[in-house]
Specification:
The protein is mainly α. It contains two helices and no strands. The chain is elongated.
Length: 70
């Protein structure tokens, strides 16, 4: 049975190795009201809920208009 060669698990650190790119963190300083800050923090949750409630209100208006015709 042939001997299995051990795999390399060490990072290359020589002159031809790829250099690690610095990570950039962008920070924005903005003065927001309490409501504006709350919306900014919960934007991912607030947008779908607002869209669904708007569609529901439009459907309710259309259905009430159709019912009032009869």
């Amino acid at each position: 049975m042939a001997k299995v060669k051990k795999k390399r698990n060490k990072k290359y650190a020589g002159a031809d190795a790829t250099s690690a790119r610095p990570k950039i963190t962008r920070v924005q300083a903005v003065n927001r009201s309490r409501l504006g800050q709350w919306l900014h923090e919960r934007k991912k949750l607030a947008k779908p809920i607002g869209t669904i409630s708007l569609i529901g209100a439009i459907l309710a208006l259309v259905i009430s208009g159709i019912i009032s015709l009869f």
